[in-house]
Amino acid sequence: MTPVMIEWTGAFAAVLTTSAFLPQAIRTIRTRQTRDISLWSQWLLFIGNFLWLGYGLSLNSLPLILANCVSVPLIGIVLVLKLRHG
After folding, report:
1. pLDDT given for residue 55 in this prediction
2. Cα separation of 66 and 46, whole Å?
3. How far, CA to CA in Å, does 3 sit from each of 7, 9, 57, 59?
4. Residue 32, Ramachandran bin (φ over 0: left; ψ between -120 and 50: alpha; else beta)
5. Burial of 49 (0-12, 13-18, 19+ CB in 10 A)
6. What residues contact 73, with CB distance under 8 A and at least 6 apart?
């Protein structure tokens, strides 16, 4: 695979994984309903995505950086809502 193809693959993966979390985040922000959301999964997701952001920054990988710059705050919001309303 060429470097350009690798970056496009990463960008596509980033769009898919970030988009997958978006409906849950939007619903949770709108409804404040967090009863069925696992606190542990949110902590693990937050820490994991934060580490992916650091990894992306260290590699200067735009797909990793952009995806995690969107995901980390959204996961953080859901996590805060879970802590407040869970």
Report:
1. 95
2. 15
3. 6, 10, 17, 13
4. left
5. buried
6. none
pLDDT band with cut points at 50, 70 and 90 for residue 85: confident
Please write the tens of the pLDDT for every residue from 32-50.
Answer: 999 999 999 999 999 999 9
Instruction: Report the b/e string of 64-82 with b at 16+ CB within 10 A.
Output: bbbbbebbbebbbebbebb
Do the Cβ atoms of 5 and 45 come closer than 8 Å? no
pLDDT exceeds cutoff 80 at 66: yes
Would you give the distance in Å from CA 13 to the centre of its chain?
12
Amino acid identity at 40: W
Residue for token digits 């619903």?
Answer: 27
